Input
Amino acid sequence: VLNLDFNKLTSVKGLENLTKLRYLYLEDNQLTNVKGLEKLWQLEKLNLKYNPDLPKAQIDELKKALPLCKIHSNAKK
Output
């Protein structure tokens, strides 16, 4: 489990190396890109809510790449 909520993060760089991670919380940050998280194939839950500049298309790609992961997001763009 890794909780990085409310940290003003702008990047997920380096998180792709945490391949045993099952729960990742990235709520209320400043992410614009989540490329690399698709490598975390053991994820069961991913929270990306309240990252206003995160493109919905990237969330959709993650959902396809991680079909067993519950991904929470409110991306609208």
About this structure: The chain has a mean pLDDT of 96. The radius of gyration is 11 Å. The CA atoms of residues 16 and 36 lie 5 Å apart.
